Amino acid sequence: MVGLNGHELINKPNKPNKLNELNKLNKLKYVMTNGDKKILVVGGAGYIGAHMVRQLVNARCDVVILDNLSTGSRKLVHGGEFVQGSLGDSNLLDRVFGAHPFDAVMHFAAFSQVGESMNQPLKYYRNNLAETVALLDAMVRHDVKRFIFSSTAAVYGEPVEIPITELHPCAPTNPYGATKLAVEHMLADCDAAYGLKYTALRYFNAAGADESGEIGELHDPETHLIPIVLKAATGQIDHIQVFGTDYPTTDGTCIRDYVHVNDLAQAHLLALDALLGGGESAVYNLGSSNGYSVKEVIGKAEVVTGKKIAVVEAQRRPGDPAILIASSEKIKRELGWTPAYENLEKIIRTAWNWHLKQILNVQHRTLNSLCSAIL
Ligand code: UDP
User: What angle separates helix 344-374 from helix 225-234, to the nearest 10 degrees?
Assistant: First the structure.
């Protein structure tokens, strides 16, 4: 099927997932009433965006995905109308916004590697900040007034107290966090000037995969801890480098708060529902409120995979704060967020399931091409 300007429509049925639980609990008052809601998901072919699209489609929303595939993958898009393009293309934005009266925009399209942002800050300011200006400009031109933004715990910088609440001072230690904070400031100004209502969701460490094993984390190159550890467990890489063992933590390695990607998506749905119901702009942390050191993550992964993971101790990675642990009380209290995965082993298990399926798919494709070469 072909949609807007020849863009492909993908209408693969989705299996029920966590969203149905939300519906059963009657937590969504506006997303599913008064007919389908039309949502633009920018960056919907990326890791978190793809999980979001799946939940929106399950909520019977009409979803358009805009993604330039610079880091995302078509393999992760399992529903909605896919448009390949960049936010810098204002003609394309006008065509997309002109063709669809969107109820809201969700924005996942950003570069997110702390280390890279230290070496190539302008890449981050261009993509994460300037492109978001272009998106907000288009929203203002087309009178779309609800926006959900993927922000990050990196806006806080080195914490002065743990757990980190939304009232914690923001002093990013890397350009990645700085670009996200700049967008948050811009959103507050857009609310004041244009009445654009937004929710900024400050993710701690997104991890895991949908239990179907059909979508998951797929970065090239991979830089995030859990997928790298799992690659080491399968032998795809020899060892994992631990960046810094002299941090002021119990075992000297950095502590992070890992939150399941479907729990993140669930929080977006609740935020969307609140905005559709006339809610005011808000900022929320999204974490599991549990901290695990790099060494602990490796230990948990060894339990889940049953494999010994080789470790090489390396220099600190510039820009890394020692400890990031969220308080997510505000979103639990105000929007009724109830994360389903508060246990790291359970999160890693879903990532492992996805990882093994990826390997099986590659083996299957290799076998198929061998068979066709022989026949
Ligand atoms: N890390 C590591 N080795 C790796 C990748 C990451 O030791 O190969 C550490 C990294 O320094 C950080 C933690 O694992 O302390 C989580 O890093 P990740 O890149 O997954 O997420 P971030 O916290 O940067 O968003």
Answer: 50
DSSP one-letter code for 304: H
Orientation of helix 175-194 relative to helix 131-141, angle to 10°: 20
47 lines ligand 1 (CB under 6 A): no
The CB of 295 under 6 Å from ligand 1? The reply is: no
Is 114 a pocket residue for ligand 1 (Cβ < 6 Å)?
Answer: yes
Q: Is 124 a catalytic residue?
A: no
At 336, list the tokens: 């009724």
CB atoms within 10 A of CB 140: 15
Per-residue pLDDT at 363 = 72
For ligand 1, say whether the CB of 241 is within 6 Å of any of its atoms: yes
| DSSP states of 251-307 | TSS-EE-EEEHHHHHHHHHHHHHHHHTTPPPEEEEE--S--EEHHHHHHHHHHHH--
Q: What CA–CA distance (Å, rounded) separates 288 from 60?
A: 28
pLDDT, averaged in runs of 10, over the chain (375 residues): 45 46 69 80 97 93 96 93 97 98 98 93 98 98 98 95 97 96 98 98 97 90 94 95 97 98 97 96 96 98 97 93 95 96 95 92 74 75
Q: Which tokens go with 219?
A: 């970065």
What's the confidence (pLDDT) of residue 216?
94
Tokens of residue 291, six digits: 């901290």
pLDDT at residue 4, rounded to an integer = 45
pTM of the model: 0.91
Residue 325 contacts by C-beta under 8 Å, 6 or more apart in sequence? 159, 162, 163, 164, 204, 255, 256, 257, 287, 289, 290, 291
Domains, the chain: 4-209+258-289+326-341 (3.40.50.720)
Q: What are the two backbone dihedrals, phi and then psi, of residue 2, each rounded to the nearest 5 degrees?
A: -125, 135
Q: What is the pLDDT of residue 35?
A: 58
Give nearest CA residue, ligand 1 atom 6: 225
Q: Which pair of tokens denotes residue 27?
A: 């937590």
Q: Which of 47, 124, 156, 176 is catalytic?
A: 176
Please compute Rg for the chain using Cα positions. Answer: 20
Q: What is the pLDDT of residue 6?
A: 46
